[in-house]
Design a protein that fits this description.
Its EC number is 3.4.19.12. This protein is an alpha+beta fold. The protein is built from 12 helices and 29 strands. The structure holds zinc ion.
């Protein structure tokens, strides 16, 4: 027998032989048929047939610590399971390391390159890692012991000698850098597969000078949306609407303060009187918030800031609604127009309406025939707005304007808004948008041209080509002076077609240089999970097997097939490993 794997079973002496068999086979992912169980008895194996299944271990004189053995058919296993499904023994709080090795072990391109390396290579970590990978892919073992590789890693990074729980993401980064360093070359399998470039632009708001720097990265650390970041929909008078992130600190308690932060960070020319905070549900304003209201009672996803245009005492506000021509539904939030208190005609509104139609056209390419205009009187009666006849005519008691758009164009407009706001389809997209959004270096930036500290606008982009393997860290661990905590927020992330196109550097015509759009798209290949708290926890890995395309759980020495793809996305996800769509290749033994 060339398979010898050990496991520990904790079993009550009153338990039956049948239960013991079931438990032992389950631990090895095998079916408990009616094979005998063997017990080590001084110098030989004693056989216990399944007829004894009802007997307790006490009845059968099993001692409190006993070696048992089970049989299973190797041929059956090999045909049922792809190779490379191999557990890793925990050497004492080393699940962080096992979890990382399992993530890497399921990146086919990387493993092929490692196995192709010359055995004579003078690099202790790479050679040990190659030995480990070879064993893991041999199909001979259910679980193996990675201690010789760990020994070599500890020689280079002594803090991994303590057998304490460590951060898996940090370890992955260290491990990839160790391998890269051992090659002592500029371009290695690590740079080829894992390295990307981030371009960061910093524009001084004093002199408008822009500074551009490029830096390599091996992973994207994404901050979790937490209390120091608020997302609010901002609806402008000219029709534009966008989701803005507002940085806040713990002293922000009232809506008024949030509006002040918003103005400072996004619209410094506005005054707080011109921002109205509203509750917006399905594009309908359902409540007007008082500025002294506590933020605690406001649902962030329903909060919108509506810009009010400036008006004189002789003018009033009227609402402009945007309605789907056939369904009569509002397809976006209303905005406010201004018109004279008395004797309002189309002429007074035409400029504002033209601006709104221009906005809708620019988003959808809809022709003029897609729109119709109406006005509403005080009794809620609706009349068609006629550009010619109402041009100079008084529209008595006008209370609202309504712009309708044909359904076909409404659908295009809605799609555009979803992409812009990235609200619903994926929370990961929201974190990415947040990572790549424009922010401000307030007093932290020293401008060489102004030769002083100034306020600067900062934004990052991904450079092309993107890395073949994209590692995303969901930053669940917060270490600061007041508290150490783990954020358990559930983040939805896509298994297929994560598209990074919108975060890439574009040329002046807003095109990126790659013609093949698939190269900005990624499929998920592995997830490192962390369960438990900041101080004590456990790491496991979900990974997709390249041979049978099934997802498996790797939990130290145990490997188990997942029942459903739905099990992959959990609030424990900590590291996401994505592989570029055109890269997944088959590994032939
Ligand atoms: Zn400057």
């Amino acid at each position: 027998m060339d398979r010898t794997d050990y496991i520990y079973l904790n079993i009550n002496s009153l338990s039956t032989l049948g239960k013991l068999r079931k438990q032992a086979y389950e631990k090895f992912n095998k079916l408990a048929k009616n094979q005998p169980i063997y017990r080590w008895n001084k110098d030989s194996w004693m056989q216990f047939e399944s007829e004894l299944d009802e007997k307790t271990l006490d009845d059968l004189d099993f001692e409190s610590s006993t070696f048992i053995s089970i049989d299973y058919d190797d041929k059956e296993i090999n045909s049922k399971h792809p190779s490379s499904l191999c557990g890793l023994v925990n050497l004492g709080s080393t699940c962080f390391m096992n979890s990382v090795f399992q993530c890497l072990n399921n990146i086919p391109e990387f493993i092929i390159k490692i196995l192709e390396l010359n055995d004579e290579i003078n690099a202790p970590i790479i050679s040990e890692y190659k030995k480990l990978v070879k064993k893991m892919w041999s199909g001979k073992y259910n679980a193996i012991n990675p201690s010789s590789l760990l020994d070599n890693i500890q020689d280079n990074l002594p803090h991994y000698s303590s057998y304490r729980q460590q951060d898996a993401q940090e370890f992955m980064n260290h491990f990839l850098h160790l391998i890269h360093a051992e090659f002592s070359m500029k371009t290695t399998v690590i740079t080829e597969l894992f390295y990307g470039q981030l371009q960061s632009t910093v524009k001084c708001l004093g002199c408008q000078q822009t500074e551009i720097t490029n830096e390599p990265f091996t992973f994207l650390p994404l901050s979790m949306m937490n209390s120091n970041q608020k997302s609010v929909l901002y609806v402008k008078t000219d029709g534009e609407q966008r989701l803005v992130s507002i940085k806040v600190n713990s002293s922000i308690f009232f809506l008024k303060d949030l509006i002040d932060c918003f103005i400072k960070q996004h619209e410094p020319t506005l005054t707080s009187e011109r921002i109205r905070a509203v509750q917006l549900v399905d594009n309908v304003i359902t409540d007007l918030y008082e500025t002294r209201q506590s933020l605690r009672n406001i649902r962030e996803e329903e909060l919108a800031f509506v810009e009010h245009p400036e008006k004189t005492d002789n003018e009033k506000y009227i609402k402009c609604q945007f309605v789907d021509h056939s369904t009569n539904e509002l397809f976006r939030p209303s905005i406010l127009l201004i018109c004279p208190n008395q004797n309002c005609s189309y002429l007074h509104l035409s400029e504002q309406i033209d601006q709104l139609l221009g906005h809708l056209c620019s988003m959808t390419n809809a022709p003029a025939s897609a729109f119709q205009l109406f006005w509403r009187d005080r009794q809620e009666k609706i009349f068609k707005l006629n550009v010619e006849t109402n041009r100079n005519e008084n529209l008595p008691y006008i209370s609202a304007i309504r712009i309708t758009m044909a359904t076909k164009w409404v659908d295009i407009y809605r799609k555009h808004c979803i992409i812009n706001h990235s609200t619903d389809n994926s929370m990961l997209a929201k974190l990415l948008t947040n990572f790549f959004r424009e922010d401000y270096l307030d007093g932290d930036y020293h401008c060489l041209k102004c030769s002083k500290r100034t306020v600067a606008q900062h934004k990052s982009y991904l450079c092309l080509p993107l890395p073949h393997v994209l590692i995303i860290q969901l930053k669940r661990f917060i270490y600061d002076t007041n508290s150490n905590e783990k954020i358990d927020t559930y983040i939805r992330f896509p298994l297929y077609e994560l598209d990074l196109n919108e975060y890439t550097v574009k040329d002046d015509n807003n095109n990126n240089k790659l013609e093949n759009s698939s190269s900005t798209k990624y499929d998920l290949i592995a997830v490192a999970n962390h369960t438990g708290s900041l101080l004590s926890g456990h790491y496991t890995t979900y990974a997709k097997n390249n041979e049978d395309k099934n997802w498996y759980l790797f939990d130290d020495q145990y490997v188990r097939k997942l029942n459903s793809d739905k099990d992959i996305v959990t609030k424990n996800a900590y590291i996401l490993v994505y592989v570029q769509k055109n890269l997944i290749i088959k590994y032939n033994k």
